[in-house]
Amino acid sequence: MPHYANLSAILSTAAPELFDFMSTYWLPNRGTAENFWQREYNKHGTCINTLMPSCYGADYAPGDEVIDFFEKAVGLFRRLDTYQALAAAGITPSFVQTYTAAEIEKALTEVTGSSVVLGCWHGQLSQAWYSFNVKGSLQTGQFVPSRTVGKYWRGNCPVAGIKYLPKKLKKD
């Protein structure tokens, strides 16, 4: 499976609307968007066997698998709107207010009907992991919520006192 270092070029050329959305809404907390997207694709996209170039047949062009991966990832990102799910439960970014893991988990479980794993960095909510099994290929399959498994199934957030901080505005 090829690794790519020029994802912005691939995305902006082959899928400009996807690239524009990602450039606005799917950004890292730290570092550059390019590095974040490379890490996501090279860590996750390269493990998906239906993204192998050989699965595309004669019409394959280098980078097709990148577009398919990010179209699905961004589709899930949009569908699993963590910010809106938390806001609907009264959990909003704040420099003062803190929340319990149970409050956050309950709000996010409403998104899929299945458990969610919370990731914290120094007591600050930094990510939420939703678990799915895929029936079929990544490109056309159905994502079915599943139980969380593995060594991180409990996450690493404290039971209480979790900070959900506002995002910093980045200057152009």
From TrEMBL:
Biological processes annotated in GO: RNA catabolic process
Gene Ontology MF annotations: ribonuclease T2 activity; RNA binding
PANTHER family: RIBONUCLEASE T2
One Pfam family cited in the UniProt record for this chain: Ribonuclease_T2
UniProt name for this protein: BgtA-20213
A GO cellular-component term linked to this record: extracellular region
UniProt organism field: Blumeria graminis f. sp. tritici 96224
Membrane-spanning parts: none
Family: Belongs to the RNase T2 family.
